[in-house]
Protein: Cilia- and flagella-associated protein 45
Amino acid sequence: MCHKTIKAPKEVVTAYDVQGMRRLVVPDRNPIDTPGIFPKSQFQRLKKEAHIVTLKDRMTMLEEAEQKKNQLQLESEQRKEMLRKAQASQKAKIGSKLSEVERQAKAKNLYLLQRSFDLLQEQDNRVKRANGVILATKCRAIRNAQIAEKELIEKQLQEENRRLDMMMEQQRQKEMQAEQKRKEEEEMKKQIYTTALSDQMRMNEIERMIEAEKIEEESRMINKAFLAIQKEEQEKLKEKKEMQQKIRDELKKANTELERYKLIQKEEQRIADLRIQKFMQQKLEREMEREQELALARAAKEQEIIRMRNMQQRTLDLRAAMDEMNALRIQEEVEKQWRDKEIAAAKAKKEQQEMLKTEREKQIEDLKKAAAITLARDEDDFRKVAKVQKQLWEKEMEKKKRRKEEAEQHRIDLLKQINEKEKERINMQKEKFEEGKMLKFEQERKDQHVKEHLKKKVSQLRSKQVPEQYIKDIEYHIEGIINAK
Structure:
């Protein structure tokens, strides 16, 4: 089953522009390729194919095959025995064919006769010498096969090392290409970020200019309102002066009338003067109070206008400072995040390189250990095979010695019998010339049997897939043995 790594959520930042607030997704610096993991079945298959079959494994396989063959032969013998028992009660009729058991018995008898004949041929000195040549050639072929197998294993190990080196080099080239691509993407991201930041700063500058124009327009409107208020105050002041002048005219007229009528009654004049003075004093006080109120109102309006202008200027400055601080803060946060990601990426890259270096050293050490173990196993297997071959050779020599002694005794007995028979034959047929021909014919027949027996041995070697060069060498030596007198 293939496992997949869980991806982290994308990073999102907030950007402010003329259209409002936008949420932007920050591209990931790491590649999107997920690491591949082999399934268990494929891993087991690769592990099984990577196993090197040693000489010990081959010996074990041969032993298992031999045991299986013996088991099958034993089962076959058991089935044959059951058939013999089942057909034991059957009787052959006149003119009927041989039963299966009789055919098997006949074949067995023929096999025993052929085997006896082969054993008799094995007693010939030429066959013994040929057996020695065949055994020596077999040993040499086995030794050459072991050397070739060892060279093949070393060649396979070298090819595996070259393949691993090539894989590591390809991995390194791939990582270098990925690193170059990542750097190019980072440069492109930096350019995009710089362009976006410049556009945002330009938009902020345009907003500040628009805000300044708005404030300037408000200032013009306030100045216009202030001029209107001043004009209204001037009109009111003009009306006041006209009213004062009118009052003065009325007072002058009243004084004239009073002077004209003062002779009428002094008391009335005095009372009238007192009333006029009181009226004038009250009116003057009212005018002074009104002037003070108007002056205070004008001063309050001017202070309010100045305060509004100062407040607007402070608001404008505060907004510009806040925009600049927000832009700087966003830039610092983005730069800090970028620096943190760069540090984390460099740290991860360094850890990955260290891990790759450690794994490579471990692989090299494992390969060295595997080569040493394989060499030690080969040496151990060679010593075991040599020991087994030595034991087999000693047993063979012991058997040869016993057979030689038996053959010598048999030869002595046979010579004794031959001498006795020869004496009888010489005594009985001294004058017969055919005796020499019979001996010559017997010798030729015996030579022919030896040749056929040796050819059969060579055919058996060919059937066992022995290399042709060794067979030709054996044939050459056998021909020399046969032709030797």
